[in-house]
Design a protein that fits this description.
Length: about 325
């Protein structure tokens, strides 16, 4: 329309100059250039008229065609023809778009939680004219942001602050489901897995409480380990005592059977430190080692004789 308007202006100027040149002397009259201005204006009007019948829709967009301001349909990508002075076209992006938003809400245990999300969505290309008719081009601030805010508040109120952290995937799924339902009514489509919860932010008081709880849990685990070690050491001591008692019992039985003097001799040799043992108390005495060895030799002969082993000379 700008080219046509400029061409009309040139034609009017040229005609005005030609109309006024008759009042001028012949030598002062303008030349053929005035006709050139008029002719150039005519060319601009023709080109402008042709150009105004054609509109180019870029890739990733749809054109909403309006007839005297009334929505009349959707134009696809590429070159499209319209009626000059009758039709106008508004571009609507139908590619996947990203909207980042945050909302502050109260959890079920009345903790203040600020949730940051990123939402991938797109306009239903077949219904871009309906979106433009109902909402206009400013659908992000009018539809998407309020829907995100409301969905986050509704879902956050169903969980405690601690549950929001532990059940992050479940919370994300519920928020995405609620936003998808709200936007579908306006022909806005959420991409599959198109919602991401980028952050949960809690109050300083809650963060300190969580930190204190973690410290207490770590201390409890430490005490549990110490207790387990003490139980293990006690069981080991009991087992050692039981073993010693069993060994003493076996030694006592051995003393009562044939060959008991050998047991005494073995115990004495095991515990002997190289010095003659002395025991103070009821009196001093000394073990007769030779007698013990003779007894041991005699018991060995008896055992060999009973076993039928011939004696060595």
């Amino acid at each position: 329309m700008g080219i046509i308007t400029f061409g009309i202006i040139l034609i009017v100027v040229g005609i005005s100059i030609n109309a006024g040149k008759r009042a001028l002397p012949v030598e002062a009259r303008p030349g053929a250039w005035v006709n050139g201005i008029i002719g150039f204006g005519v060319v601009l009007i023709i080109l402008g008229s042709i150009g105004s019948t054609v509109v180019q829709i870029p890739a990733g967009y749809r054109g909403v065609r309006m007839e005297f301001g009334a929505v009349r349909g959707v134009l696809g990508e590429g070159i499209q023809f319209v009626r000059p002075g009758v039709d106008t076209v508004e571009l609507i992006e139908v590619r996947t778009q990203k909207e980042e938003s945050s909302a502050t809400a109260a959890s079920r245990d009345l903790q203040t939680v600020t949730t940051n999300i990123a939402l991938n969505f797109r306009v239903d290309e077949s219904k871009a004219d309906q979106l433009f008719k109902q909402v206009g081009k400013d659908y992000k601030s009018r539809i998407i942001d309020p829907a995100v805010q409301e969905s986050i508040k509704v879902v956050t109120a169903q969980y405690t602050a601690e549950e929001l952290i532990k059940n992050r995937a479940q919370v994300k799924a519920k928020v995405e489901e609620d936003i998808t339902r709200r936007l579908r009514a306006y022909d806005l489509l959420v991409e599959p897995q198109g919602l991401s919860i980028t952050n949960f932010a809690f109050s300083e008081e809650f963060n300190r409480a969580i930190e204190a709880k973690q410290v207490a849990q770590q201390e409890a685990e430490k005490q549990k380990y110490v207790l387990q070690q003490a139980n293990l050491e006690r069981q080991t001591a009991v087992a050692r005592a039981q073993g010693q008692a069993e060994a003493a019992k076996l030694n006592a039985l051995a003393l009562k059977v044939d060959g008991g003097s050998l047991v005494v001799l073995r115990e004495w040799i095991t515990k002997w430190d190289g010095k003659l043992p002395q025991v103070a108390g009821a009196g001093n005495f000394m073990i007769d080692i030779r007698s013990l060895m003779n007894d041991a030799e005699r018991e060995n002969r008896n055992a060999n004789r009973r076993a039928g082993v011939p004696e060595q000379p």
